[in-house]
Specification:
The protein is mainly alpha-helical. The protein is 84% helix and 0% strand. It has one domain. It has three helices and no strands. Helix 1 (2-22) packs across helix 3 (37-66). The radius of gyration is 15 Å and the shape is elongated. The chain starts with a helix and ends with a helix.
């Protein structure tokens, strides 16, 4: 689960980089526009993956303390 969340977060970061630099939304382009159901699902899954990655901050501290 952690690896999938990291991959999806990287995809989201790259997409936002493209939007910021080139004003090009790759997800919207691939899935027929940002308003399509499929694109919205992709955005939601990437957002959930990013939220999951927040837990990495707390787990890393717990691992250091447990050693």
């Amino acid at each position: 689960m952690d690896t999938i969340a990291q991959i999806l977060s990287i995809v989201g970061c790259l997409n936002w980089g493209l939007v910021g630099i080139f004003q090009f939304d790759l997800v919207a382009w691939l899935f027929g526009g940002s308003d399509t159901l499929l694109a919205r699902i992709i955005y939601t899954v990437i957002g959930l993956a990013g939220a999951w990655c927040i837990s990495f901050l707390f787990r890393r501290d717990a691992l250091v303390e447990g050693e």
